Amino acid sequence: MQPYFGRSTESVTISKVHGLMGEQQEALRLLNEALVLVDKTGEQIYDAELHRLKGKLRLHLSTENVSEAVHCFQQAIAIAQNQHSKFWELRAVASLARLWREQGKDSHVQVMLARVYDWFTEGFDTIDLQDTKGLLEELS
C-alpha cells in the first residue's frame, strides 16, 4: 500500500490524526512507513518524534508492550541527543518519565527530565514546557 504522502513529516501528521481517532493500528502502520522513508531518504528531522510516537502507540495498543515502548522512548532520546535537538529530547524523556511514573518506578529519569527542561531559556508558555514543569512537580 502506498503512503498517504511521500514525506515522513506528513506521515507523522496523518498518524497523529489516526491515533486521535482511535485508529492506532493504522497510525502505527503509517509511523512504520515513515521510519522506512527516513531510512531511504535520510530526512531525519522528525526521526526522534517518530520513535516517541511509536512508543506511545504501542502502549495504547496493549499494556503488554511496555518494554517495546521503553525501547522506542530510549531510541528517541538517543536520536534527539545525537541531533542536539532539546525539544525532541524533552518530549521523549517526558514520555518515558510518564510511563515509569505510572508503573511506580523510581528512576533517574526525573533528573534527566529536569536537566533537559533547565536547558530552555524561553518558551515557557508552550504546552510542552508547561506539561514538563507540571510533570517535574508531580515527580518531586
Topology:
Blueprint: H1 8-20, H2 24-41, H3 47-61, H4 66-83, H5 86-102, H6 109-119, H7 127-139
Instruction: Flag low-confidence runs.
Output: 1-10
Main sheet record = none
Percentage of β-strand residues: under 5%
- The total count of helices amounts to 7
Q: In total, how many beta strands?
A: 0
List SSEs in N-to-C order.
HHHHHHH
Tell me the span between the first and last alpha carbons. Answer: 47 Å
**Form type:** globular
Using brief descriptors, characterize the structure shown:
mainly alpha
Short description:
With 140 residues, the protein is mainly α. Helices cover 75% and strands 0% of the residues.
Structural features, described:
The structure is a single chain. The chain is mainly alpha-helical. It has a domain at 44-139. It has helices at residues 8-20, 24-41, 47-61, 66-83, 86-102, 109-119, 127-139. It is globular and about 40 Å long.
